[in-house]
Design a protein that fits this description.
474 residues
Length: 474
């Protein structure tokens, strides 16, 4: 079975080839998923700077909502992986359905909150009147489709943990192709379809995510790929929900803090005008592309380290962590150097006719790109901490990174020196380097090796399984 083969690789195969064999399928899926934002940026970039700025200020808000959900989704994936490894298919099905139920509830709640609070949030960010209307329409359509985004993202994660990585890639590829067609159709209009401008980009994503979610639902209910859920599996199991909450809460807070930092940075940048916002937003698409392999290596590291810790092979777990850290540092340093010399060309792809935005982003990109290696390094190390069951350390690192390092530095440099917007860009560099140094120090202190989660959780998992299966029999 796929999961058994993956486990054998994790425990005995050469580290570097194994790391890439786990990372490549995750990378392809993440790259295709990010294509939604890239395609939106491409077509919206053909409108005007206000339209680009509208999407730019909207992204941190939606990303924050998604991050709240992501921590709990991680917990659900871990439970599915545990039972899949034990080949306990009834529990795989049950936990999958409960996780998807949690996804729907969170999507409805967060979507409703986001829809009604969008005007307030944009006002708090001090968005210009010229940008406000476009950003509001984009945000509200996005929040209406939040459930479909959550549902399909959770489906991807579940399929990956049970060893099926190809099917989600096929579905994402088809939906991305449709999005490339739908974007200009809904943005500019055609025939009886009215042009919705910026809101059209959000509507195109909603439509394609709906179709992808429909296919994902058919797969889960058909039972063709390990998981076969039934309607009775969706009866709320509050014992599981409590466990998922306790496991996922620290991770949710961490991810939410990361996304909230984007909102705060956007708030700082809005005071420098629409061109600065557009430059930051357009450039964020390129940074997002860089972040994809960084996050992928972090997830692959977590998977391999977690499995070796479970097998009580701490020496190999440490070797994996060190190898991943070096690979991340060297790989992203090289990527950063490449971006440094091609900054203007890259950004002109998204905004071909606005030289002010191109010049503004090129300055930002050339400031931060050479230091991408430190960003990759810290993400590899935090992946190791999560694998050991230590969700608190990544949370503390994120809080220190955002609230102790970057925000104070950005504010002081931007408003209390003559650097202006360049001071904000320098805050990214200082944040990358200092956070990486702190993460390295914590890693080599070695406390992450002392957390014994396997023995503590074996008995509780067995008790949970018996109780849940007992309820199903009754």
């Amino acid at each position: 079975m796929p999961a058994t083969k993956n486990l054998d690789r994790a425990l005995s195969w050469p580290i570097i080839p194994t790391l890439f064999q786990f990372a490549i399928p995750i990378f392809l899926g993440s790259l295709l998923q990010s294509a939604y934002q890239i395609i939106d940026a491409y077509w919206v970039g053909k409108l005007w700077a206000d339209a680009v700025a509208a999407v730019s200020v909207s992204f941190p808000i939606t990303f924050f909502m998604i991050s709240v959900w992501a921590g709990f989704a991680t917990a659900g994936s871990i439970f599915v992986a545990q039972y899949a490894g034990k080949k306990d298919f009834p529990m795989v099905n049950h936990v999958t359905a409960q996780t998807m139920l949690l996804v729907v509830v969170l999507a409805v709640v967060l979507g409703a909150i986001g829809f009604f609070l969008s005007p307030t949030l944009l006002h708090l960010m001090n968005v210009d009147d010229a940008v406000f209307t476009w950003a509001l329409s984009f945000l509200r359509v996005t929040f209406l489709g939040l459930m479909f985004t959550f549902w399909f993202s959770m489906f991807q994660s579940l399929m990956r943990w049970v060893g099926e990585v190809k099917l989600p890639l096929y579905i994402i590829f088809g939906s991305v192709c449709l999005n490339f067609i739908f974007d200009p159709l809904f943005i500019n209009g055609w025939g009886i379809i009215p042009g919705l401008w910026v809101a059209g980009a959000a509507l195109a994503t909603l439509a394609t995510q709906f179709l992808a979610s429909a296919v994902a639902s058919w797969v889960l209910f058909s039972g063709r790929f390990w998981i076969h859920i039934e309607l009775r599996d969706f009866i709320p199991d509050f014992s599981y929900i409590r466990r998922a909450f306790l496991l996922g809460f620290p991770s949710s807070v961490e991810m939410s803090t990361r996304s909230l930092s984007m909102v705060v940075m956007t708030f700082l940048i809005t005071s420098f005008g629409t061109i600065a916002i557009a430059s930051y937003g357009a450039g964020s698409n390129i940074v997002q592309l860089v972040m994809i392999p960084a996050m992928v290596l972090s997830m692959a590291t977590s998977t391999l380290v977690w499995q070796n810790i479970g097998a009580k092979n701490m020496d190999r777990a440490s070797e994996i962590a060190r190898a991943s850290s070096w690979i991340s540092f060297l790989l992203f340093s090289g990527i950063g150097i490449f971006i440094y010399f091609t900054a203007s060309t890259l950004i002109s792809f998204f905004i071909p006719e606005d030289q002010q935005v191109i010049d503004g982003w090129a300055v930002l990109l050339r400031t931060i790109a050479p230091f991408f290696g430190f960003l990759g390094l810290q993400m590899a190390i935090t992946g190791t901490f999560r694998a050991s069951g230590n969700m608190t350390t990544p949370l503390i690192l994120t809080l220190v990174s955002s609230w102790v390092i970057q925000f104070p530095v950005a504010y002081i440099f931007a408003y209390h020196t003559d650097m202006g917007i360049q001071g904000v860009w320098y805050s990214f560099v200082i944040n990358y380097v200092l956070t990486a140094i702190i993460a390295i120090a914590i890693f080599y202190k070695g406390d992450w090796k002392k957390k014994k989660i396997t023995e503590e959780e074996n008995d509780s998992r067995d008790a949970y399984q018996e109780a849940t299966l007992g309820e199903r029999v009754q």
